[in-house]
Description:
The complex is a heterodimer of chains A (213) and B (258).
Chain A: H1 30-42, H2 46-68, H3 71-88, H4 99-117, H5 121-124, H6 142-159, H7 164-176, H8 180-187, H9 191-209
Helix pairs in contact in A: 1-2, 2-3, 2-4, 3-4, 6-9, 7-9, 8-9
Chain B: H1 3-6, H2 9-13, H3 19-31, H4 33-50, H5 59-70, H6 83-86, H7 89-93, H8 111-150, E1 156-160, E2 164-170, E3 175-181, E4 190-198, E5 203-209, E6 217-222, E7 228-237, E8 250-253
Antiparallel strand pairs in B: 1-2, 2-3, 3-6, 4-5, 4-7, 7-8
Amino acid sequence: MTDGQEDGMDRHLRAVPPTLRPGPAPEDDPGVRMTTLLEQTALGDGAAYEELYSLVAGSVFGLALRIVRDRDMAEDVAQEALVEVWRRAARFDREAGSARSWILTIAHRRAVDRVRSEQAHTNRLHAHAVPVEIDHDGAEDVVDTMHGEWQAARVKAGLQQLTERQREALDLCFYKGFTHREAAQALDIPLGTCKARIRDGLIKLRDALGVER
Amino acid sequence: MNENLHTLAAPYAVDALVTDERRAFEAHLDECADCRDEVASLALATEALADSHTATPPPSLRARVMDEVSRTAQLPPLLDEAPRAGTKPASGDADVLSFSPATRRRRWWIAAPVAAAVVAVLAVGGVMVADARAERTAQLAMEKDVMTVASSEDMEAISLGLGSGKVMVSHEMNSVALMGTDAGLPEDGKEYQLWLVMDDGTIDAGPTFTPREDGVYMSVSEVDVAHMAAVALTEEPAGGSEAPTMEPFAVTEMPTEA
């Protein structure tokens, strides 16, 4: 209320220099800002969507690229995912998770679907698990780069807490698009073991990152 | 309901289910608060995984997306489609993350009252954020250095006795960086200070730092990594000291070359 923004749902807040805003500026918090933008997008606000695009396109494209490993295909996947964000924005529920998480979930699923539909998938089933790598594909947007590098560094450190086997299972499923059955087969372990490794790995990573909400 | 379905929460979180399984699990999610909690909790990790590969998309992507968006109708909110949360007072709603059931799924898209509600939430959140903001600005450069060390090719991480932390050493960058979580705060008026213990016994003063309220901390220092024997931490008066005024509470020795 303090910001007098109740009448300005579709105002393009980014144009207002933070220092000129009276009082606390919660929209400076990236998470809060993104939630607001996504909710404005749900109301058909194109300007909000454009700003949202700027905040997530690098993450969405980077994730797609990490999974499909081909720039053209990654562009397609990113486009599909970002349009889907627009289309489904009204289905976002802020109480079910963060806006960024919601958007990246859409992108991840699109990328995984694409990888699975590729012929090459059969070959991948026999490929060895490769350690999870962190890519820095020369992001140029400063804010995005900062955010990206920070995340990458934290995740890299977090992943070190996992056992090699947990990392391997997560890598196959999350970054290579294997189903848990395929991963179990590729790693030659029982399905239950595979599920447990995924779960334990995620929990360990989450704890290592110290994220609590 | 189905014992087996519960075990699909983690595979679901990483999108490792085939379509049929996913649908079955999503139907199950509507009825199982435990699985909803589990998925929400694992999503904190998957979000980080998903968000750690930022790459700059070609500028043409924006134009293509905006063009397609301008021709794409938006789906309506879930109100109609969702007998899920609304019609199952027994198991569906009450246990959803302890948010008020009545407001859970229907709020902001009812435009007018909503805007006010959103702003109210923001204002409450703002107090914290404002505190963090000054700190964030000040720390930005430092964080960037930490990231650079953390992501350098030859980074080695060794555990550090402050909360759950790591010393990251990079020869390439000739730097050490600290990064950790769950650190307690130093005594009032004090800060933690990093000390760089060299092979020849000299102790160089490093930067001071204070963990954030949530226990997350970072620090970084340039150092002649090749001749560094250990890093140590002490509590020092705000601003730091020239030489340690107490026995270090944490010492991490560098691994000796084999």
